[in-house]
Amino acid sequence: MPDTINTATSLSQNKGPLYASPPKIQAKSVKGFYRRLKNSFLWGGLALYHLTPLLRWDRGEGKTDQAVQFDISAQRIYLFAIEVWPQDIYILTGIMIFAAIGLFFSAALWGRAWCGFTCFQTLWTDLFVKVEALIEGDRNARLRLGKAPLSFEKVFKCTLKHSIWLVISAFFSLSFLWYFGDAFQTTQDILNGNISGWSLVTFLTLLIMTYLMAGFAREQVCLYMCPYGRFQGVMLDEHSKVITYEDWRGETRQKPGKNRDFSNRGHCVDCTMCVQVCPTGIDIREGNQMGCIGCGLCIDACDTVMEKFGLPKKLISYDSQHNINQRAGKIPVSLTKSKTSLLRPRNLVYLTILLTTVSLTIFGFSSREMTKITVLKDRVPFFVTLSNGQIQNAYTIRVLNKSDQDKQFGLSASGEYVPELKILGQTDNTIKVAAGQVVTLRVFAKGSAPQTAAQPVTFELRGQQNSETITVKTVFHTGS
Ligand code: SF4
Ligand code: SF4
């Protein structure tokens, strides 16, 4: 009871809000190796995303010439020379397993390099911040502008920034739609206002989400929304490379003042440059944290400071904890010879899964059947007895031709029991399937009653232009 009273009292005494919004992060721009690397990924990633749907690939008449397209209405995915049918879904499964394990593998090797350099949220936020810096200036200028009273300059800069953000968001959204239809036709349709309801909803949703996520939510996505950031810790070990402040060398930190003698003090001059450039606003000197996306910008910032003071670079380093502990003398001398190892059990497991996935997917794809037949036997009725005493069963068969050539087959039955087959509406048993098409037919099988109630029967499609033969097993019923 006293506990309850104390809690109630302390809550009633607490006049502050129960939730405080995090301060807006205005990251300072920085130059250096990691900034250049991030720029390469930014421009390379944007070019890849926007230009891929514009690439052409000749597939012959009647087919899209877009190199990469997810054609939902035709239930087809085109990836250059590869054409994925719904029946080939294992290829997508293989790609997804590869992507997931590849992410784990990259985390085991390079920590959160994916988050810092290639994640869409990182790329678009980086682009939005570049636009912001171009219009409003670097960190200090932006902070000043934020605090300044309303003026023509403030309104103008703010309007211009948000307008450009919206144009970028619209372009991102448009490029997304390009992947699901012909890119040029889609653009023309949108410009003419000829857009379907679902396309419009997708376009507007993505536009708004990009504008909000890259313009406003930014690092909050990495800190609170992204599940990968939450569990990435379990994928790291002491040999994984992570961004780390080498406290054994930096502490005790101290403002430099006029004393430039670093022989009896830590190398960190407490300039906070590493914090000011951080896109998630964390202080890496407090240790590895979930908020660190591994972008390396704090390394660039600190290296510049170290250079200025004539101190060795890499006070903040991108290295394994194992190597850092070695440098710090925390690992016994007898063990210090071992450097970070690439051949670690978890890496070998990831590598084995990756290679197995790739091999199985390639094998499955290269050995996939270009013609597929499915036979569905009627269940109601199971069979009918004809006036001449013969038994008749009915089937629905579907023949799928995944190849680029029209095909023609002869349908027959084979096996121990061979009923007579007849395709409904045809005088012969020839099946013609155009390239990339599916035909559905009704087939009747009739014969004298076999000894058993269900007799195994094999339907056989024999190619009339080549030696291709496809068989499928089914049954012939004479009793329920
Ligand atoms: S940038 Fe380097 S020197 Fe400056 S506060 Fe950060 S760790 Fe210390
Ligand atoms: S701490 Fe360094 S590496 Fe981590 S997010 Fe901040 S700037 Fe990037």
In whole angstroms, the N-to-C terminal distance is 73 Å
- State which percent range the strand residues make up: 15-25%
Low-confidence segments: 1-11
Quickly count the helices: 16
Number of E-state strands: 14
**What is the number of domains?**
2
Instruction: Give the biggest sheet.
Output: 5 strands, antiparallel
Order of helices and strands: HHEEEHHHHHHHHHEHHHEHHEEEEEEEEE
User: What is the mean pLDDT?
Assistant: 89
Bound small molecules, which ones?
Answer: iron/sulfur cluster
Cα gyration radius (Å): 33 Å
Q: Looking at the structure, what is the overall shape?
A: elongated
* Helix vs. strand class: alpha+beta
Helix content: 40-55%
Tell me about this structure.
The chain has 480 residues and is α+β, with helices and mostly antiparallel strands. It folds into 2 domains: 22-368, no CATH class; 371-477, Immunoglobulins (Immunoglobulin-like), CATH 2.60.40. Helix content is 42%, strand content 18%. The chain is built from 16 helices and 14 strands. It has helices at residues 2-13, 33-51, 89-110, 113-118, 120-136, 139-147, 152-178, 183-191, 197-217, 219-225, 227-231, 247-250, 273-276, 297-308, 321-328, 345-366; strands at 68-71, 76-79, 82-84, 241-245, 316-320, 371-377, 384-385, 391-401, 407-414, 420-423, 430-433, 438-447, 454-463, 469-477. The strands form 4 sheets. Strands 6, 7, 8, 10 and 12 form a 5-stranded antiparallel beta sheet that branches. It has a 4-stranded antiparallel beta sheet with strand order 11-9-13-14, with no helix packed on it. Strands 1-2-3 form a 3-stranded antiparallel beta sheet, with helices on one face. A hairpin with a 5-residue loop joins strand 7 and strand 8 (391-401). Helix 2 crosses helix 5, helix 3 runs antiparallel to helix 16 and helix 5 (120-136) packs across helix 9 (197-217). The radius of gyration is 33 Å and the shape is elongated. The N and C termini lie far apart (73 Å). Residues 1-11 have low confidence and may be disordered. Residues 245, 250, 268-274, 285, 301-302, 305, 315-316 line the site of one iron/sulfur cluster.
